[in-house]
Amino acid sequence: MANYLPFDLNQYTNYTDYEKDYFTKLYEQLIQKKTIFEDIQRLQDNQVINYSDLPSPTQEEAKSILSKVAICHLNGGLGTSMGLHIPKAVIPVRNNQSFLDISLTQLQVIQEQYNVTIPLLLLTSPHTEKETQAILNHYKLKQIRLFSQNSFPRLQSNTFLPLQATEIFPKQQLLYPPGHGSLYMYLYYSGELDALLEQGKEYLFISNIDNLAAPLDLSILSYIVENKVPFLMEATRKTKNDLKGGSLASTKDGRPILIETGQIPKHRQEEFKNIQVFKHFNTNNIWLHLPSLKERFLANQINLPLITNTKTIAQQSIIQLETAIGSAVTCFDNSVILDVPRTRFLPVKNTSDLLLIQSNLFTLEQGLLKINPERMFPDLPLVHLGKHFHSFDDYQRRIPIIPNLLSLLSLTMIGDISFQGEACLQGNVIILPQQGKHMMIPHQATFNNQVVTGECIITDL
Which backbone phi and psi does 41 adopt, to 5 degrees? Predict the structure, then answer.
């Protein structure tokens, strides 16, 4: 098919040739309705390495391998899922520290401990670059660099043509960041890849800025260096709450492959929900061997499959053409899937997630977020907060002091609920006020395996 677009990209902003080429290839996949997921099969156990089998390096070995590594955080998203229009990275998490503050503390601690300098790259977007730089100005860390994605036009679902600005669809909503799969393109064309190689850096650890549970791990890095691994993806076991995440599968020739929800054919969607068959999903903690990445890029072998992200904005159905960074797992020979514990995957997508990491379920020391050793249960509680808590401002107003969740198993709060002060929630707790009524949870209230309804009528579960 000819390499063309039926509209002019430059009507929105100035694009480089490589950005035009990138978007055009995605658009062609959309028109051709390409799919590569018809013949995939479950990932076999022998295709997965267990984190518990990795040895820890000595102090001397650690310092040696740390001199070869850099870190990149994906930092292009806004906190829109929590009703905010600021970068997610600057949302206060604990002790008035943001995701970015805590990530920078993690980096500072490991650099001081091993007396090394580890470059930090932050992939931003036009929505996050300015606020991110403002935080960085308060730190004296060396070799922190920003490089930014551009934005691409949202398309109408029925015509595949760009949206036009209207009163109900303002100009600022016409564009979107193209997903983290564009990292490879921006890493190469920004010159950052070559700059890292010139510094003697051979490995790059990539993670989402909101996953504070995934600091640079020396055991993983040591394994990669020792075994000359070109691409490693950290994956963890799926639960019933992970059905929308990227599933790991295998191609016919035995290569691991990542499948996002939007790429699954309709007739196989139920199959992919079976967590006994497709057991693992991508944490977006990715480790790259930089010389291998450059080699693959120059050979035009980093071609990622399209993710068609459908949304409804201003009552209009639109699509965004995106790619996932983990999809490159198929592009490298001898890629590795590493089964890591859930403790390395604690993303914050909404206020339910935020409640967990702000609570006493975790401790925060020197930038490291860890499960509180006093927690007696192996898994984190399942938390569902209703629409009254969905926005960050409402969440803070309704829960001014985070409850004690140390012994909580599950929590459901739906309705007009507020906390007056401290509270303790234990076991399985459901709070459901009468429709149209406001419920105030009194100071020092304790609920243990209880349903709280109506006028604070309490019944045992």
Answer: -140, 175
- Our measurement of the distance from residue 323's CA atom to the centroid of its chain's CA atoms, rounded to an integer in Å, reads 13
Note the pLDDT tens digit of each residue in 396-454.
999 999 999 999 999 999 999 999 999 999 999 999 998 888 999 999 999 999 999 87
Residue 181 · residue 323 · CB < 8 Å: yes
Which neighbouring-strand residues pair with 309?
Answer: 320
Tracing tokens 């079976």 back to the chain, one arrives at 274
Whether the Cβ atoms of residue 154 and residue 319 lie closer than 8 Å to each other: yes
Alpha carbon distance 116, 108 (integer Å) = 10
pLDDT of residue 332: 94
Structure tokens at 168: 């109900």
Distance CA 12, CA 173 (A): 12
pLDDT exceeds 70 at position 461: no
Is the pTM above the cut of 0.70? yes
